Amino acid sequence: MSAPAGRLQPQRFAALPNPVTAENKFWRSFKVPVVAKEYSAITSIHFSAESPYDFAVTSGARVQIYGASSRSVKKTIARFKDTAYSGNIRKDGKLLLAGDATGLVQIFDLSTRSILRALDAHQFPVHVTQFCPYANTTFLSGSDDKTVKVWDLSTGAVQYDLSGHEDYVRTASWMSATRLVSGGYDGTIRLWDTRIADPEVMSFSHGEAIDVVLPMQSGSTVISAGGPSIKVWDLVAGRQTPTKKLSNHQKSITCLAMNSENTRLLSGGLDGHVKIYNISDWKVVHGMKYSGPILSMGLSPDSCNLVVGMSNGTLSQRTRRITKQTSSKTPFLGGVGSAFGVVGKKKQIYKGENDEFYVEEARRKRLRPFDKALKSFCYSDALDMVLENGSPVLIITMLIELLHVGGLRIALSNRDDLSLTPLINFLRKYIRDPRFSETLCIVTSTILDIYGAALGGSVMVENAISKLREKVEQEVAVTQRANELVGMLQMLSA
Amino acid sequence: MAVRSRPQLAFQTEKENGIGITAFNETAKLYANVVEALDAQRLRIFDSVAGSLKTEYILEKEKVISCIAWEQKPLYASEQITTDISGSGEILVLGTNSGEILIYSEHLGSLTRTYSFGILQKIIGAHVLANDGFAIDITGKVVCFSVNTGEVRTSFTVPSSSREFSGLYLSTVFKNLALASSHNIHIVDLNHRNPIDSLTTHTSMINSVVFQYLKDENKFYFGVSANQDRFINLYSKELDGTGEFPTNTVKNVGALVCENEVKMLSIAYEIENPETGVLAALTNDGTIEMFENPWLSKLRQNGTNASSLSHRRKLLTSHSTLKICFCRSRGDPPIVLESIAFESTDSLTVVWKESTRTVFETVPWRILSSQATNGLIELVRSKTRLTSKNKTVSNVYDESNATISSGVMQKDLRKTEEIGSAEAMEGEEQEPSLAERLQNLTKLDQQAQALSTQISASTSLSTVLTQALKTNDQSLLESCFNNNNVETIDTTIRRLDPSLAPILLDKLAEKLALRPMRADVLMVWIRCTLITHGGHLVLVDDLKHKLANLHSILEDRASKYSSMLALQGKLDLVLSQIAFRKAGGSKDNAEDEEPISIYYEGYEESMDEASSTGDEGYSSDDSVDNEMYSDEENSSKGAFPDEENENRELSEDYSGDESLENSESE
What we know:
heterodimer, A: alpha+beta, 4-stranded antiparallel β-sheet, 24% helix, 33% strand, elongated, B: 5-stranded antiparallel β-sheet, 21 helices, 30 strands
């Protein structure tokens, strides 16, 4: 007797291609958006290197420090006479550096918000300032007066005045304690080494006004973005042609960022897109759309917070929730529990003496109602139960099982219009699915065999059947075309 | 209570661009409204009892409906509408902006007549009483026509000082008595084409009129409400039972006051007991105010002559006896209602919009009136689940619905800027000089030429598709594949870089596997790509490997061809059998057919063999639909006990199944 034993195992089908990659999943896990609106465009976002990774947002004539966990403003520094630029937090999280449109470079104590230094050596707006991540007392500033200056914090004096750019300097960054890279509107990237007398070491021509340069951690590669393209420069080879050119944006790229593992590059542009590249092959692995043109972007060092600033003053923060690993009971706590007489709830099972062999009882999952019906040969009931509230896969599984045990005809016969219509509706819904169609064809044929023209007795069933026919006609047309296409493919790949 | 009630027709007309044109039929069971769809207006008919949409009819694109009304049953004898127009159901009359009258049959579900008289402009009121149709246009031109033939019986213009009319209201009691409304009310005798009376009633446009005839007093009462007016004026007109309508017998019998501006009126009264009328007024804020016995003024009740004019006035105006409103929660502002109508004197049907859904509710107001506090019944109707579902949808990231935690709303900020710039603009505005104008003209010409050359580019999606393929952007790709215009697909693929073709095919294969129902469109894409970029694809090395995915998916699909075709054949057979049987074909055949077997005494043995082969096909039928053939079977039972047995054997598989089934289910 071929009675099905136990639970019905769901039918397995060939896996469908999954368009969602692991990468997509990861970047989509940045959700829980919080949006703040500022008065004017957000020109810079800088994350503190220190946990909890607060960040400085520069917009209009103020710099705001946002708390990473609360995602709201913690401190506001508004002691600027004109538009502020490039708020930058020192790696220990104690000082903030910012330039402004008058050319003043100011350093603030973040705990008291008092001005520690106000340095007035630039004549034109200072668009970029950065603390040296390798030395606490050094920082750089780049200005529209075409120069980059390296400062000593303790004395407030300019240590090096690096001139060579032929237009505004809009971006600069430290590569090591003595080496810098800067880019400007003259379309060149210049590398500086402060140790030598003639500090300009190397220069590359990007071709378009550069908005942002980003040196990679390895120190051998610099990424520059200007216009709608990103170029990757190899410093070791020192060639004048970029090793890679990425043109995935429709409009100017305004900001670049790296994740802390230095494996992914993020770029944001005026087209409102943030694109994420895998730096091993420079392929876009994910993209995100924002509501406005993006001017600035920051990814927190723990890769939990993605902050994007837009030209309409919108600041969007997306946060990834890290699920804490539930730590298993520490041995210490267990010890304490037992010491205080807390007894574990686990029941003692007699496992026999040493010389006895204990046969463990196999645990069985409980049978579902339709399993029971199937077991007791109530095929029709089993099918009805599944049809009522089962997933399509379960219904298909049931139908296949019925076919195997030879109960399909029994399950399908003796039905009135009310019990037949849901089945026909299911057929109509899924007969076009290539995974199911084979089984469903057999089921449909069986129904037609059993009932034949008697199906016309009920208006409901007749309607359902004629709708089913429409679907089948469509599918016939599709399969016919599929046949044609297979022919085409054979011809091409022969 | 076996009292027949006869509620008046409630309707509402004249709203810009068709929104808000609604009508209940006389029994308040059907509700029609006109909604603005993307390109054309749609007529929707709802069953107000079940609360479901019955039919939706898409009107022709250029037709803009300006008024709508259901057929009314006159109380006087009249010619009926032919069934090819009405479909023996109710009909709906629609007036358009261009002066056309459309007749829609609810049963047939289509427009059955379109009349255009050529003399009418925008129609603001149209009615059908049996075979008599009436229409009035915005200038006050009235046309009476036959619904069956479309022949114009009379047409005339209502003489009036006002430039614009708002509606026409017909009596169901008296033939040829109508009220035309503008700012004023004109009582019109349609037979003599002349207005009997002209009353100055309101300062604004009249939006609703209700009336009732009291036989005992031989008086005709009517109530009038207007836009932006809280007062409902009540009048009575005395009739002299000669069939002619006397002039100058109209009296103002009072006024009803609502708390808000009145949107529409509805009235109901019992035919047997006409004194007990009830009038409902729907106000703009969504409150319904009920006035019981509206015509019975306090003046008459008291029976005394009021001493002063102000006192008289006070007595003439009366407030509502009951207010009903629907709200989301207690104390909230009421839900704005679309329309109301009396089902009977005791219950009121109410319609409102719940986002895109239309919700109906019947209010048994007389029963509820005991629960009223301060004369107000608040019925709490929380938002339906449908809208709460929308809420979960809004969790999807979107800047527009995200919570703003700090800063100012950009929207408000922009407003202030705009005002500033607008002010600045006013100062600078100056007329352009002739030279500037000429320059502008040439510029425009150049732009037009440039546009015409770029049309081909705008019909293709190649830039979007290229970007989507390059950046692996699923949503962008999806937006391309959603396009099912063959021409667009063709141009898009033609403009696509051939090197992207393998990637495109791969993506198409993925989509095809995930969404088998969309195969129609996706296969057009695949076909176009193979044809257009076939030349390049041949050159790609290892193409077989690269397109293995697509190949297997297509092959899998293609392999279903024969079984699907067979199934189609089976379905065709069964469906045509059904059709055949419905046409009565099988019965005729059964009668024509020779008897299956004839019993001859003495030939039993030889007959049995012959009949058994002949019966084989038939017996399976028998077991399936016993009902159809049971008679024949019964008749044959007595005659052929042997054959009966054989039948059983033949249909073993069926009957066997049945018995097994029965035993198991027990």
